[in-house]
Amino acid sequence: DGKLTDMGKTMSEFPLEPQFSRTVLAAEALGCAGDVLTLVSVLSSEGVWYRPSRQSVEQLRAAEESQAGFVHRLGDHMT
Questions:
Q1: Helix 18-30 / helix 33-44 crossing angle, nearest 10 deg
Q2: How many CB atoms within 10 Å of residue 68?
Q3: How far is CA 38 from the centre of its chain?
């Protein structure tokens, strides 16, 4: 019939993809919303790394040095 359920109406209030809003609501019910909000924030954001042109070796080196402090051997989600 094309009508939203109560859950769908609640999900539509979030400025997120449907799967993320549903996950946040489930996490609240399970008592782990803080952790899930962190994960949803990471997964729904665009890339944050500035990548200068490869033609400027000095700018590329400076960007890599600045970003080195945010690298973790276990992956991006650990920083």
A1: 160
A2: 8
A3: 7
pTM tops 0.85, yes or no = no
| pLDDT digits 0-9 by tens, 25-62 | 999 999 999 999 999 998 888 776 677 777 788 888 88
Mean pLDDT of 53-78: 79
CA-to-CA distance for 21 and 76, rounded, in angstroms?
23
Q: Which residues of 7-36 are buried (b: 16+ CB within 10 A; e: fewer)?
A: eeeebeeeebeeebbbbbbebeeeeebeeb
Distance CA(50)–CA(35), nearest Å, equals 27
Question: Residue 40 has which token pair?
Answer: 């949803």
